[in-house]
Amino acid sequence: MTGYSLFPGCLIPLRFPFLEASSRLVLNALGVRYEALDGASCCPDPVGVQSVNFKAWLYLAARNLALAEEKRRDVLTLCSGCFETLKTAREILLQSPPLMDEVNEALKLVDKEFKGSVDVVHIIEALYRVRGKIKEMVSTELDADAAVHYGCHLLRPSDYLKFDDSENPTKMDELVEALGARSVDYNYKHLCCGAAMSNIKRELTYPYVKWKLSSVARSGAECMVVACPFCFMQYDLGQVELSRKGEAFSIPVFYYPEMLGLALGYSYRELGLHMHKTSVTPFIRKHFL
């Protein structure tokens, strides 16, 4: 088995295509092999869909995994929600043969079969596996304090995901520091971004965004680094929304592959950084120009 089946999910292609562009750039630069997973659907959402109809959530996830199994490549996700769904669904099915039989009976309708023969890997894990090469290839070291945000779906449910120590994760911090930056500790580091509550009412998420951003600002960090497009949306767009309510923040928010891309020498435009809602230009001018 060589390379990955790239699974960008829904949110990135539809709202944040520049996050996929930066991911592809750094994967190519590092020699990480991948191919698009043709025919894939929504993962589906680990909160909304799973809560409404567990079986439908499981069937759709199993179909996506079956597509990757046909290609004999592990799934590479760019979104933490997709990672949680696909990885959790895989583990649930492998631990329950009767449920796996039920799912495969349903998959016969679309000529698919889930076998459990491929794994699911988040892009942060894929990059962590080549962190030595990252250190070798950095062309511009980042002399800055950064606030890492892991989010929820990258770490939990930990019994299934096993990405890192869910109470004291370090992999993202190590990847940030591989670029020359300093990962700072701060209060509310492991606070949920609140994105799921947007399905109920967008305004319900604002206190969570404010608490996090306020904590980051107090820490002295010059930027935030995230691993998920939903978390990115919360803190990038969220700053604009909070400003309309009189809460002023100007903290640059980077999806980790974007920051890695800068350290590898890719330009502001190549990485699509001009498409952020909260400007990263002052940060770029200070550290990369």
Structural class, from secondary structure content? alpha/beta
Number of strands: 8
Q: What are the secondary-structure elements, in order, as H or E?
A: EHHEHHEHHEHHEHHEHEHEHH
Supply the number of structural domains: 2
Using the alpha-carbon principal axes, give the shape.
Answer: globular
Percent of sequence in beta strands? 5-15%
Named CATH architecture of the largest domain: 3-Layer(aba) Sandwich
Structure description:
With 289 residues, the protein is α/β, with parallel strands linked by helices. The chain has 2 domains: 120 residues, Glutathione S-transferase Yfyf (Class Pi), Chain A, domain 2 (Up-down Bundle); 150 residues, Rossmann fold, CATH 3.40.50.11810. 47% of the residues lie in helices and 10% in strands. It contains 14 helices and 8 strands. The strands form 2 sheets. Strands 2-1-3-4 form a 4-stranded parallel sheet. The chain has a 4-stranded parallel sheet with strand order 6-5-7-8, sandwiched between helices.
For the structure shown, list the relevant keywords.
10% strand, alpha/beta, Rossmann fold, Glutathione S-transferase Yfyf (Class Pi), Chain A, domain 2
Short summary of the structure?
With 289 residues, this protein is α/β, with parallel strands linked by helices. Helix content is 47%, strand content 10%.
Topology of this structure?
Blueprint: E1 4-7, H1 11-15, H2 17-29, E2 34-36, H3 48-52, H4 54-71, E3 74-77, H5 80-95, H6 97-107, E4 120-122, H7 123-128, H8 131-137, E5 145-149, H9 158-161, H10 171-177, E6 182-183, H11 206-219, E7 223-226, H12 229-243, E8 253-255, H13 256-263, H14 281-288
Parallel strand pairs: 1-2, 1-3, 3-4, 5-6, 5-7, 7-8
